[in-house]
Amino acid sequence: MILTMSSNLKKYFIITYGCQMNLHESEKIAGILSSMGYQSTNNENDADVIVFNTCCIRENAEDRAEGNIGALKKLKRTNKDLIIAVGGCMTQQKGQAEELKSKFPFIDIIFGTHNLEDFKSLFLQKISGKKKIIAVEEKEGPVKEGTPTTRTSFPNAWVNITYGCNNFCTYCIVPYVRGRERSRKMQDVINECKQLIKDGYKEITLLGQNVNSYGNDIDDENTNFANLITEISKLDGNFRLRFMTNHPKDFNLPLIKAISSSSKVCKSVHLPVQAGSNRILKLMNRRYTREDYLEKVKTLREYIPDIAITTDIMVGFPTETEEDFNDTVDLVNRVGFSGAFTFIYSRRSGTPAATMDGQIDEEVSKKRIMKLIDLQNSINREQSKEYLNKTIEILCEGYDEKKGAYLGRDTYGRMAYFTSPVDIVGQFVSVKIIKTGGISLIGEIVNDK
Ligand code: 5AD
Ligand code: SF4
Fold it and tell me: Which of 58, 113, 165 has most ligand 2 atoms within 8 Å of its beta carbon, as the pocket-test mutant?
């Protein structure tokens, strides 16, 4: 065995903002740095390299990143050798790299979303003496395979299946910073999943801005999302399969059938509705109506009666009236979501909605979102009550230091906390629910599997 003095190794610290896609891309940045002999640290004061992986989907994500980058000025002054790199969606916006450079002259490397795989060569240029590096490729390139990955969320593993987005919802910046949709080859995805299962991962989450349109850019009719999850489900091993995000316009019957016929695919689907008013949905360019959405939910429940449906909802989109908002409230009541991420519309420069008339006052939006959160909380409380005294199968995902309990989710994505005398992270356990609160549950292990 080779023993290394850990204190001699150079260390990296990565700060991630935004979605699962970004969290997974940070695992790739970590993988690249690890392959160069760097080690991770949780303490930025201890780091030789600090990487910010940024998000720009809403203004507050950008503000937070900028605040934290600004705070590094002091650290850079005391540690001249510290390398600071900033990448991700924020840097990919038009003119943003130049702006960051002048606002924060102490940043060493600025790299765009299309330059992630080049991070190693950018980093090498920096350590071999180049002063400042800005690499923001305007256009996306072909899918690249084989980027080293240091996974950080055992027993869960994220697997990209598509990059980019073709949908151009009018509020959304993603298509501008992530480029057009590109799918990975089905065999590459399957091989990655096979390896993950072999390595002991118990839950795989397939990632894409719209996983349902997977394969549309590949000239092979068998390469589609329903087939992909069917094929992955056939792999040997005890594991769960999840995926996100779906788009209601592409969420079709073959997919519903594929979900219902596999025991590995979790019985929970994230289906962002965004709004319940047809007028607003049209302005958003979502390309479905509330009736279409409710019809899909009905079909989904016909095939999988106990399916848990979660969603994203936005309030305060330009011109949203009280009546439009009430349509959203009505839809939420009709569907009975198992969870909803709620957002106040954030004006993103460069998107069509940013220049629309009728931008909504922040105070109005705040009132609307509070009403929606209250409603969803009360739905969650009611749904949680149904869990009382039931025994559910949980995949133990980690230990919560603050709560002093292990935690994990059932197939419906519902979180439960429980204690165990031994470490059971990564194991499927039967948990009897003894207490229910808001969205999460408290239980006790009844028998280890
Ligand atoms: N403002 C607020 N929320 C947004 N989202 C996307 N763009 C915006 C924006 N400009 C939300 C959508 C999407 C989720 C990931 O983020 O609800 O589904
Ligand atoms: Fe944005 Fe719409 Fe694409 Fe989702 S589907 S990433 S909301 S443009």
Answer: 165
Residue 360 DSSP symbol: P
For CATH 2.40.50.140, the residue range(s) in the chain are 391-448
**What share of the chain has pLDDT > 70, as a percent?**
98
* Domain boundaries for CATH 3.80.30.20 within the chain: 156-385
Residues 106-131 have pLDDT tens digits of 999 999 999 999 999 999 999 998 88
Residues contacting 15, CB < 8 A, separation 6+: 44, 50, 51, 52, 53, 68
Q: What are phi and psi of 164, to 5 degrees?
A: 85, 180
CATH of domain 156-385: 3.80.30.20
E-state strands within 216-307: 240-244, 268-270
For residue 32, the number of C-alpha atoms closer than 13 Å in the C-beta half-sphere is 21
Query: Any idea which fold 11-135 has?
Result: Rossmann fold (3.40.50)
Atom of ligand 2 nearest to the CA of 165: 3
pLDDT exceeds cutoff 70 at 387 = yes
Asked if residue 407 lies in contact with residue 420, where contact means CB atoms within 8 angstroms, the answer is: no
Segment (H or E) for 235: none
pLDDT surpasses 90 at 31: yes
CB 31 less than 6 A from any atom of ligand 2: no
Q: What's the pTM? A: 0.96
Domain 391-448, CATH homologous superfamily name and number: Nucleic acid-binding proteins (2.40.50.140)
Alpha helices by DSSP H, listed for 89-185, are 89-92, 96-103, 119-127, 174-178
431 Cβ neighbours under 8 A, 6+ residues apart: 391, 392, 393, 394, 408, 416, 418, 443, 444, 445, 446
Contacts of 335 (CB under 8 A, 6+ apart): 273, 294, 297, 309, 311
Q: CA nearest 38: which of 83, 91, 86, 87?
A: 83
Q: Which atom of ligand 2 is nearest to the CA of 247?
A: 5
